[in-house]
Amino acid sequence: MRSRLSGFLCGLFIVLLTLFFILAWGATAQAHPPAQEETSEPEVEESPTPEPGETISFEVTLADLDRGPLRLTGMHGSSSTWLSLPTDWLVNEIEVDLGYIASPLLHEQRASLTVLVNEDVVTSFRPIGDGSEHRETFIIPQETIGTSSGFSLAFEGLLRTTDDICEEWDNPGQWLTILDSTKLTITASENTTAPTLENLARTIVVRNPVDEPPPVVFVLPDDPDPVALTAAAKIAARLGEQIGTEGLPFAALTSSALTDELKLEANMIVIGLPATQPLIGEMADAVPSGLEGDTFLTADGIAAPPDHGVIEILNSPWNPARKILLISAGSDAGLARAGDAFANRPVFETLAGVFQFVEEAAVAVGEPTEGAWLGDKTTLGQLGFSRRVLEGPGVTNVFHTVRRPPGWIFENGAKLTLHLAYSPALEEGSHVAVFLNDAFIGTAEIGKGVSQTEFTFDLPVELLNETEEGTRPRSLSLQFVVANIVIVPECQTINPEAIWTRIQSESYFLVPHSYMALPDLNAFPYPFVGDSPDVPTAIVIPSEPTDTELSAALSLAAVMGSYAIRDTHLNLLTTDQVSEAEYADANLIVLGERARQPLVDQFMAGMPPIPGGGLYQDLERATTGILREEVSPWNAERMVLLVFGESDEAFVRAAEALYTSVPPVNAPGTIVVIEVDQSPRIIAGAAEAPAAEEPEEAPPDETIEVEVQ
Question: Whose CA is closest to 662, among 403, 476, 478?
């Protein structure tokens, strides 16, 4: 980011200075026509490069963040949103230029608007109610923002229109709108504080970047062996599980290909033994654990056993604003254990501090028995939905979206059970209506005369398994419409906090299920991730892999981690490391340019012939990427996915189709071709389905609240 910002500032300086010279020269030319001899260009000095930690300011509007406009209605109108911050910057303060329009009926001396950040009051003022746009400026201090990756911005209005003590609380004339032109000027500096393992995913993969995020680069030893490759794949899968597919594609290369530019610009994941990874020696003085020769040292300065893995995180010695995650050991056994720590969720969640050693016993943790989708019963809390309290009279909408497990077919008997609590002050007619993927599920009646707190609704499995357009939904979008109804006696006011409904996080889905029939790319990434912890998956890249092939494999591993509902038994190997005897029981994903990956033709020879032969013409095109999923010729109970093309460009196009849209097609298919600037086209397996349109990426897990009172 430092060099990108310096480049922008330098370019702006040059443009302005050049314009100055042009104007000055033009004024001189009118009085003194230029001589015929050749003149030299003026010399322009470049602006200095900002040092790490130097403060800069940048602007963003609510519209830029897709937040707003925010509408407040009713006497006690309120609205809020969550604003994300770049995870590689430390925010010093934020100046807010708030734009709003208020009802012309608002009382000049009785109406007010209060702004809260992270529930702390930042400012209050009396809005100008004339129906026109107005601006108000205030500062959000650093201590209110904190060091998290974002903050809540809330507005609470007292939107009185009269002096009447008995004023209506739900008059339509009581309104105020926060405009999406509201501008935030953020003063920040690149984060050069020492990172810790507790937040390593957010530290390595920058979220909400100011500009282009720094690349994430895996640096492997030259001629990497299966231990280093598999460790890299397990790390990539865990990063995908933590941050989703937003940071893809990852870059990967061997140590000899690492450039000085990347050392300065990239967040790096350095993998290998000190004896095989020369980059470790280059940064030995910066390694937190200490390093003597090829031996890592504990905090007490004691030499760690070579079969203990070591996981360390540090500021890059080449640029302290960039971070390095180091995965190493004194032996292959130790390196494998360090990789296994990422493949095991309970172990990964214990990583803390700036470095940690991993012993054999540390990774011998059993499979988790609780978690989202690990059984038929899954709570909203397991799906990231925290207990939600909806206060005040009126109607509130609450949304929560999650990915559905890959390959699942919901069966009859699927249900949603709501656990609710609510104020005894609620009147008859109060309710919570539930929608799933826009389908009405049911209504829970609450309020006066109702004592029930648990409500169970049947789910429309047909609509959840297939839309009216014939596509398979990739997510579950849950909507609650909460109506808090009260009757206000004349000349009495309401305390909004006394009027509430609470949706409990122990509410749960009961989802008996089966699986989609295979082979089918519409089920991807199933079966390469699934319910069973015992079925391994191996990603196979050509021997002596190129940086492109390494990058594609690790990006694909991240996709698998993002969609996996349990820890995945994942290996990354080269073609010469794979044999039928060892990997017949694995689901295989075979990657590479066709001429470099002999397993493509080997497996194709054992697969069914292509109806109509269309694939064979596509195979001859150097621009066409191919995806083909079939039953493994090595094992009728396993699947093989071939990801290839006649050229490196075509192979990359095929690989990108797997992580830019999951699944790559929205109709059943076993063979898909990908051409330049075209949607994936199904060749086989979709005789009754139309050609696939470019599907939208499944939305990330998120919660958005919009209150209307």
Answer: 403
φ, ψ for residue 610, nearest 5 deg: -85, 125
Residues 6+ apart with CB under 8 A from 77: 71, 156, 157, 159, 174, 175, 176, 709
- Cα torsion 533, 534, 537, 543: sign: positive
Q: How far apart are CA 231 and CA 346, in angstroms?
A: 17
Residue 277: strand, helix, or coil = coil
Write out pLDDT tens, residues 96-110: 999 999 999 999 999
3-state secondary structure of 116: strand
Could you give phi then psi for residue 321, rounded to 5 degrees?
-85, -5
- Between strands 635-645 and 587-593, the pairing is parallel
Nearest Cα residue to 515 out of 537, 528, 530, 494: 530
Residue 426: partners with Cβ closer than 8 Å, 6 or more residues away: 446, 447, 448, 484, 485, 486, 499, 501
**Beta bridge partners of residue 515, listed in sequence order:** 408
Give the H/E segment covering residue 342.
Answer: helix 332-343
Chain-centroid distance of CA 312 in Å reads: 23
The identity of residue 360, as a single letter, is E
Q: Is the pLDDT of residue 18 over 60?
A: no
Ramachandran region, residue 429 (left: φ > 0; alpha: ψ -120 to 50; beta: rest): left
Question: Could you give the CA distance from residue 501 to residue 417 in angstroms, rounded to a whole number?
Answer: 16
Dump pLDDT digits (tens) for 425-440. 999 999 999 999 999 9
Give backbone dihedrals phi and psi of 388, rounded to 5 degrees, phi first.
-120, 125
Packed helices 226-243 and 547-563: angle between N→C axes, nearest 10 degrees: 50
Tokens 């990964």 sit on residue: 348
Q: Which DSSP state fits 193?
A: S
- Sequence-distant (6+) residues with CB within 8 A of 64 are none
Sign of CA dihedral 197, 203, 204, 207: positive
Encoding tokens for residue 376? 């038929």
Run of H or E residues at 418 = strand 415-422
Q: Following DSSP, what letter does each residue of 78-124 receive, concatenated?
A: EEEEEEE--TTEEEEEEEEEEEEEE-TTS-TTT-EEEEEETTEEEEE
Does residue 533 have a cis peptide bond before it, meaning omega lies within 30 degrees of 0?
A: no
Query: Pick from 65, 80, 67, 101: which is nearest to 155 by CA?
Result: 80
pLDDT digits (tens, 9 = 90+) for 361-379: 666 656 666 789 987 899 9
How many residues in total does the chain contain?
709
Nearest CA among 345, 381, 375 for reference residue 363: 345
- CA atoms 557, 374, 505, 462: torsion sign: positive
Structure tokens at 400: 């929560």
